[in-house]
Amino acid sequence: MAATEELEIVERYMREHGYRWTAQRRLIAEVAFGTHEHFNAEELLDMCRQVDSQVSRATVYRTLTMLEEAGFVGSLDTGEGGRRFEHVLGHAHHDHMLCEECGHIIEFHDEELERRKEQVARDRGYTLVSHTLKLVVRCERADCEHRGRQRNPSAGVGGNSGGR
Question: pLDDT tens, 69-111?
Fold first, then answer.
């Protein structure tokens, strides 16, 4: 999906739900959709302020909440009170692994695992509607490039946030 199409979808949603579509909100959406990294609200604010130093922290937080509620961005609870967000509009479903040592986020998709999750629900008399899966892991490789990085609680997680 093209970036302009994504922004049109968000703008239409906001207007239909009584939100104002301002220059700041457009910038926030553009920046959030323009990165393939996981980010927290403060990082999104910093990225927006590189373009417009007047972007309001409150507007970033409110817009990010709206984008998440609408399903345009997803969040991952990283523990220690942090959440990292990612652009999900127009992207295929995937699950996450989170390194408990450095906070590195690894995205993955496994068709067999997806089928198994659906089967677990069916076996218990349910239809799987949606799900999130986060595996908390510790790297076993001695040469891991993330080994030795410390988690940064104020940022949600430290180190490389992973990408698509």
Answer: 999 999 888 876 778 899 888 777 888 888 888 788 888 889 9
For 127-160, the pLDDT digits (tens) are: 999 888 888 888 887 777 776 665 554 444 333 4
Global pTM value: 0.74
Which H or E run contains 12?
A: helix 3-16
Asked if residues 72 and 51 have their Cβ atoms less than 8 Å apart, the reply is no
Token pair belonging to 23:
């220059």
Amino acid identity of 27?
A: L
Q: Does domain 3-155 have CATH number 3.40.30.10?
A: no
Instruction: Tell me the HSE value of 32 on the side-chain side, using a 13 A CA sphere.
Output: 32
Give how far Cα 73 sits from Cα of 116, 134, 139, 152, 155, Å. Answer: 25, 16, 27, 22, 18
In angstroms, rounded to a whole number, what is the distance separating the alpha carbons of residues 117 and 131? 9
What's the rounded Cα separation, in Å, for the pair 78 and 76? 6
